[in-house]
Amino acid sequence: MLDRLAAFLDSHSRILLTTHENPDGDGVGASVALAAHLKAEGKSVRIVVTPHLPEYLSFLDPEGWVEGFDPAGAHADLAQWPEAWLLIDASEPHRMGPLFPVFQGTPAVRACLDHHLKDVPQGFDLEFTDPTASASTELVYDLVRPRVGGDLPPVMAQALYAGLVSDTGNFRHSNSTPKVHHAAADLIAQGVQPARVFNALYQTATPAKLKLFGRAMGGLQLRDEGRFAYVAVSQADLLACGAKADDLDDLVEEPRKLLGVEVAALFSETPDGRAKVSLRSRERVDVNAVCRRFGGGGHRLASGAKVAMPLATFLAEVEAAVLSQMAQDLV
Ligand SMILES: [Mn+2]
Hints:
This protein has 2 domains: about 1-200, inorganic pyrophosphatase (n-terminal core), CATH 3.90.1640; about 205-330, Diaminopimelate Epimerase, Chain A, domain 1 (Roll), CATH 3.10.310.30. Helices cover about 40% and strands about 20% of the residues. It is built from 12 helices and 12 strands. A 6-stranded parallel sheet has the order 3-2-1-4-5-6, covered by helices on one side. A 6-stranded mixed sheet has the order 7-8-9-10-12-11, sandwiched between helices. It starts with a helix and ends with a helix. The mean pLDDT is about 95. The structure holds manganese (II) ion. Manganese (II) ion binds near residues 26, 115, 135, 136 and 167. Manganese (II) ion binds near residues 89, 135, 136 and 167.
């Protein structure tokens, strides 16, 4: 797979890298690291994300490579720019959100590099996916490490390390394989400072965010004798706390901490009135199967979905689906 990816990248000189809407540390880390490598090889590379690079990830982009998608301005002709378009950390094009129509209209060769599960081909010319990888960044590491050889540029090493940290939950989740730890050790030996990355990724809360967590946890709900725990956040809750959508990022980790919990969920409402859920499973319940029913997906133990439905209706439907999945998987 990596040989095919290398051949694809080698055969194009103008390459656009994008990731899913609301980019995370893995998508940004993988994009920046790959861009650093391709630029060093003399290629023209752009990274465009939507809606923008989150502030807490800006430390990964000291050169200012990452462009926030601006359809009316700088990116009006974006579809025409690339020879090759690589979607990173997603393998379903609609997960690009507002970039999806641009992607549909580009004459570029279209490919994806990803570690998420998917059921069917999604209309790419080429697919580079490996669901056994812990992170998209791990795939980029496997590609670039042998090609760069000795010392890695500091920007690349830090981006790779941050991507691995992000998707393994700082090496806590079930995808924290020996291979990931070996890669992390290599990157630390290259000069990455783990404490600096941890602080940048995780120790950045605002008072508004902590108030939002408090408000959400005050409404903690338990079902099935505490095996399913969830919190819900409405737009009114965000407003009341002065919080932003980004502040919801790791809230689902809170109900997940409960002793005896099998599935944790965060329900939230988007500004345009749609409903979202993030589901986390401790080990046995397949939450990807639950999210698939609502047009979402991800991994077996971590998945999400977004629907055009009122929050309360969606919450009731997902709750029923989770309880039925638990009845099936917890035997
Ligand atoms: Mn990922």
